[in-house]
Design goal:
- The complex is a heterodimer of chains A (211) and B (102).
- Chain A is mainly alpha-helical and 211 residues long.
- Chain A is built from 8 helices and 1 strand; from the N terminus they run H-H-H-E-H-H-H-H-H.
- In chain A, helix 2 runs antiparallel to helix 8.
- Chain A is globular, with a radius of gyration of 20 Å.
- Chain B is an alpha+beta fold and 102 residues long.
- Helix content of chain B is 64%, strand content 21%.
- Chain B is built from 6 helices and 3 strands; from the N terminus they run αααβααββα.
- The chains are: A mainly alpha (211), B alpha+beta (102).
- Chains A and B meet through helix 1, helix 3, strand 1 and helix 4 of A and helix 3, strand 1, helix 4 and helix 5 of B.
- Strand 1 of chain A pairs antiparallel with strand 1 of chain B, so a sheet runs across the interface.
């Protein structure tokens, strides 16, 4: 192992230490259940983007509160170095490109360009969900050296077969809803476990003798 | 004896201590950190970390910035250019030294 690899290991360790609190899984899980509730809200004729904002805003506020009042006092704050910042910047650019491509795909669907060739709504919906979830999370996992995102990406790759299987019993709209709900619950449970372990390992520090 | 003294003089005693070396290596790869995170990262107690940081600060290898955030003291710690150079010099010296071992 050369010294650069050792430094990289040290940097990775520092980065992973700052991500041990399970917030990422909790936040992802809450976003998925948020999408589920937005789909339920749309059944009650509450239209986009309000049906997406109603569940997402409280989730984001909860994230800020937990971060500032529970995690930071226990874990402290770190600013990453240039190597990590470059990695995160690349991740942001690639994710933005993917979002633009997906939006273009959605607009094509809406305008009926793709429907002429692919008439199966269920397949299109599940493939889009797969792309929308798998690709960004696989990239997050790679660029952030963050293994739970691989788990999220792999789990999400089951959306397509799950949807096909469930479609024998439910209509396509319900399939998508329940898949988002099950993904959300899975990550909320995972996040809760990591968060509880984090709280146990990192009690609130009082009377610290700082330099 | 004279040669030995000269050799020992070439070793940077501030960096040579394992805990301080580990602190500097961590600060080398991140931009800055607060006291609590550095404590978690290094596994040192607050008193121990504080003592090592004082020595590193006295050698001008690290910069300690103190401020109050929401009426609470907050210490931000980062490596200085001098600290980076000292770490690289130490690394080069040790590499040269151990390269001669078959």
């Amino acid at each position: 192992m050369n010294s650069k690899e050792t430094l990289r290991t040290i940097e990775k360790r520092a980065y992973n230490l700052s991500q041990k609190h399970g917030q990422f899984e909790l936040f992802s899980g809450l976003v998925f259940t948020g999408i589920f509730s937005s789909l339920i809200l749309s059944d009650f004729n509450i239209k986009m983007p309000l049906n997406l904002l109603i569940p997402i805003i409280p989730v984001y506020l909860a994230y800020l509160v937990i971060n500032n009042f529970i995690i930071k006092p226990r874990m402290g704050v770190v600013k990453y170095g240039p190597v990590r910042r470059l990695k995160l910047k690349r991740l942001l650019i690639i994710t933005l490109i993917i979002i633009v491509l997906q939006l273009a795909g959605l607009i094509s669907l809406k305008l009926g360009f793709l429907n002429q060739h692919l008439n199966n709504d269920l397949l299109i919906a599940s493939l889009l969900s797969f792309l929308f979830i798998f690709t960004p999370f696989a990239l997050i996992a790679y660029y952030r050296d963050y293994w739970p995102a691989y788990l999220l990406a792999i789990t999400s790759s089951f959306i397509w077969p799950e949807t096909v299987l469930l479609s024998n019993y439910l209509d396509s709209a319900s399939c998508i809803k329940y898949i988002f709900l099950s993904l959300g619950l899975f990550f909320i449970v995972l996040g809760m476990i990591r968060f509880i372990i984090f709280l146990k390992e990192n009690p609130r520090i009082r009377n610290i003798n700082q330099i | 004896m004279d040669n030995k003294e000269r050799f020992l003089d070439r070793i940077d005693n501030i960096i040579h201590e394992p805990a301080r070396l580990y602190i500097l290596l961590n600060l080398y790869v991140i931009e800055s950190t607060d006291f609590v995170f550095l404590m978690k990262l290094t596994g040192l107690t607050d008193g121990n970390l504080s003592a090592h940081l004082k020595r590193l600060n006295a050698a001008n290898y690290i910069k300690i910035h103190k401020e109050f955030k929401n009426n609470k003291p907050n210490t931000s710690i980062s490596i200085t250019e001098e600290g980076r150079k000292a770490l690289l010099d130490y690394s080069a010296f040790m590499r040269d030294l151990f390269e001669s071992i078959p």
